[in-house]
Predict the structure.
Amino acid sequence: MSALLEVTAIAKAFRGLRALHDVSFTVNDGAMIALIGPNGAGKTTLFHIIAGMLTPDSGQIHFGGRRIDGQRADQICAAGIGRTFQVVRPFTALSVLDNVIVGALLRAKTVAAARRYAETILDELGLGAKSNLPASALTLPDRKLLEIARSLATQPKLLLLDEALAGLRPAECDRVVHVLREVRQRSGITILLIEHVMRAVMALAERVVVLHHGEVVAAGAPEQIVRDARVLECYLGEDTPL
Amino acid sequence: MNPRAFLSLAALSAGLLLLPWFANNYLLALATLFLFRAYTGQAWNVMMGFAGQLSLGHALYLGLGAYSAAALYFHFGIGPWAGIGLSILLCILVAVAIGALAFRYGISGVYFTLLTIAFTEFARIAFDHFDWVGASGGLFLPVGRRNQLDLPNLRGPPAMFYYFMLTLTATGFALSAWLLRRRAGYYWQAIRENESAAEALGVHTFRWKLLAIAASAAMMAPAGVFHAFYFNNLFPEHIFSIGRSIEILLGPIIGGIGTLCGPIVGAAVLTLFADGATELVTILGWDLPGVKQLIYGALLFLAIVGLPHGIWPALARRLGIKS
């Protein structure tokens, strides 16, 4: 397996507050990797940098062998990286279908072609029956799915999911996990996800990267990670007797 | 389209087309004013209603369109039809310059709006000192004979001006409807709803916002040309005033911002309000200064409080049409 995404020595500070320091890791083609860490560890900042919403102070990001750090968000999306937002950002006044059409228009030549593609994606994600509802009428789990559908419509090679499961009840969570597994099986898409729900991380990820205070403190298979002393420490605190 | 909506539209079109046959000059002038409001509102709606970029300076494009065609006619005898082409080009150029400046440096929201006001004020002051077009003393076009139709020079009876505005309004509506269904319409609405989410879906927001401001300004230009040749006089204080910019956006706001029919419905209601207030004052004999404006203001207030999303969305629901 070759490296699809290479993050090398990324650093970012906000007015002296060190958000990320010397962060390096790679995501192989076709992999499913989880990025975990306590609140404020720098996970979302890292996502913003990969997706082009922020520029790093130093370090490099290569995607498919091409350097992408410093490019605009839309250029990075066009290069093949799709993303969802932690707090969902639907186009609320538009219908569910129109939301997905906006994404599909990136690769489709005509609106009609984008519509057809958007319809298949909505059907695959189980939102087909809700196509014509305004996005504002959707429940939270459906909004999370819409966020994913919209992103998938841009036909990314790499999908960045920022807490796609946060705030969902266990049954809803299982539904989204199921959808993600299916999408991955069908398209072989590479997924990098930020997740707090450990149940989902264990169920989905092949590899876990742990971020703490802006640094990578551990990386490995999920079973290994949950037993790692440094990981337990950053989640539970040093003095907590186990 | 359902049969009821189709019938309403057919009746409306027939009524508008045949109006000059049964309307007197006063009614025709009122209808022409209504169309002018509807068209300029439609142009403003492309930028704000579709793409979410609030301009409080659309009088700028109206004035530039009016002055460029009028100056060509006044100084070189070049007819208004060539003038329309030039005024559109000029408006696009200015709009792209303002848009590029604002969007390149990330000026957005209320600061962008301030910038639109600033450029319009700048134009007003500049034209006040621009002697070639009469400066603050105004530019006056030679008036033609009202009963003689001279279409190449846009000189003729009131009905000609009415049909000019009717054609423009119909074209503006069709153009807006077409744009809304194209890639531009989808991208503009995405930018309006959430710009960063649009970017994350591969939308080059800078380019599409620039297109929105350019399209909107281009649509304003022929309305400016109409204004110059209908009234035959232009004053910077009048055409570039902030009051005029606000008049342009009242229609779409009252009618339903971001909708296709909103600017037209809004313009109709505004024209009725303004004229109704005048009639009411005359009937009641309250002919005191300011009373008319007070009644007009109260009617506007009631419309906005009663239907904060505009008249058209509520009306469309009643008629069973998707707004």
